[in-house]
Write a structure and sequence with these properties.
The protein has 20 helices and 14 strands. About 45% of the residues lie in helices and about 15% in strands. Strand 5 and strand 6 form a beta hairpin.
């Protein structure tokens, strides 16, 4: 396997990364290997989050795998998204009650699972050679790699209704001041300028997390300083992410039902023009278009604006992964690896594409995507083509606290100021940094 230098890893993320994570729990048909007796009669369990963008493509993989491997059954279980689902997963790992395979984040959140202690390394599997270096870095602990990519990488920014922009004569903003000016015009037209969906608390984080390209534009060393406890969110330039939430909330730019709706409703609002902007990750483009086909043309995407138009660019995330816990052994371990081998093959990618339109290219060699992607994906891809991208903080630093989504909800709801929220989050991350044994904490 290739291990790349930090500079190369950043370059790969910048050039190649582009989106990957509701249904009830369901079971697939038989899956297995027709040329390997080790999988005969085996049932594998797979834990996955209960989002449509996770479950639908995975069901496509399972269905396609069934045709080639009729002797292994894969039963899909679901967990909630956000912190609740995190707690479920960590509890099951700690108690030895984990499924045979499970889906989880890559990057810093994965490191909190202690991959070397809890997961099966996949470093020496020949099929891992097809996986892109940018994803491998996101699932690396020590000298080993622990996950296989599901879906595509994603970017964080603003989904916007292009018809609203055209009707009001607006242009895509390159600075935060321009964005706020657009919001004022939109509000005057009787349209919700900024959609928020606090019933899915994880969605509250995007205004802050997607601002990280702007943080790096101001201070390229910020991630290293943050990891060493030499930079804080309570100070600029990182404070801006919290301030953005306070700005749009205090100006009355949020949708009236921001506290009571979920992600799917938010996507519907921006797709139909009931809302003009929705801060979101691009992996949501697929389900948005599936529910509102007109959104393929009517919804665009732009990076979260910062202070300098010349430094405008995009924050990106490698996709999440599928992992094997150490509690999976023997024939089940062999069967689980067969399933991951299929997942990272062109056939596995095609199965995901057939189930749900992709939000960008896959991070797997030999995988292709259709030419007729939605307009928002084309907008996103332009940032990669121009080289105006930066990896999200969680791929440069292992420090991330669990309470960010709740803190951002409080800031957006007017319960807490941006400065207070940033100070509370600085305390929240301290606990995790100390648990990781990082120097300086």
């Amino acid at each position: 396997m290739n291990t790349s230098s930090p500079a190369r890893r950043l370059r790969v993320v910048s050039l190649l990364a582009v989106g990957g994570l509701a249904l009830t729990a369901c079971s697939a048909g038989s899956l297995g290997s027709s040329d390997d007796d080790s999988g005969d009669g085996i049932t594998l369990s797979l834990l996955i989050d209960n989002s449509e963008q996770s479950m639908v493509p995975m069901q496509g993989v399972i269905d396609a795998f069934t045709e080639e491997h009729p002797d292994i059954t894969v039963e899909m279980e679901t967990r909630p998204q956000g912190s609740e689902g995190d707690n479920v997963l960590k509890t099951r790992l700690a108690t030895g009650d984990m499924t045979d395979l499970f889906q989880y984040n890559s990057g810093s959140l994965l490191q909190a699972l202690d991959p070397a202690g809890n997961l099966v390394p996949l470093t020496d599997e020949p099929w891992m050679d097809a996986v892109d270096d940018s994803f491998l870095q996101a699932v690396q602990s020590g000298d080993d790699y622990y996950g296989a990519p599901q879906g595509q990488a994603s970017a964080g920014g603003i989904l916007y209704n292009k018809d609203v922009y055209a009707d009001l004569g607006l242009e895509v903003p390159l600075t935060w001041d321009e964005f706020m000016a657009n919001n004022e015009t939109i509000k005057a037209a009787g349209i919700a300028p900024v959609v928020q969906t606090f019933q899915d608390t994880w969605t509250s984080q995007i205004l802050l997390l997607a601002d990280f390209h702007n943080v790096l534009a101001e201070n390229p060393d910020w991630a290293e300083q943050y990891t060493a406890n030499e930079a804080k969110y309570v100070d600029e330039p990182a404070l801006a992410g919290f301030q953005h939430m306070e700005d749009v909330a205090s100006a009355g730019y949020l949708n009236s039902d921001f506290a009571s709706i979920k992600n799917e409703a938010g996507l519907d609002q921006v797709a139909t023009g009931a809302g003009a902007h929705y801060p979101m990750l691009t992996f949501s483009i697929g389900p948005m278009v599936a529910a509102n086909p007109e959104a393929a043309e009517s919804v665009g995407f732009f990076a979260l604006p910062g202070t300098d138009a010349e430094k405008n660019g995009l924050t990106v995330w490698p996709t999440g992964g599928i992992y094997i816990p150490k509690s999976t052994e023997g024939e089940k371990l062999d069967a689980a690896k067969q399933f991951l081998e299929f997942l990272v093959s062109p056939e596995g990618c095609d199965a995901q594409t057939a189930a749900m339109p992709p939000s960008g290219p896959y991070q797997i060699e030999g995988c292709t995507v259709p030419d007729d992607l939605p307009a928002a994906v084309d907008d996103m891809t332009a940032y990669f083509t121009a080289g105006n991208t930066s990896p999200a903080l969680e791929f440069l630093s292992p420090v991330k606290g669990p309470a960010l989504e709740q803190i951002m909800v409080e800031v957006g709801s007017g319960i807490r100021s941006a400065a207070d929220g940033a100070a509370l989050y600085d305390e929240d991350v301290k606990k995790q940094a100390q648990q990781l044994g990082l120097e300086g904490w």
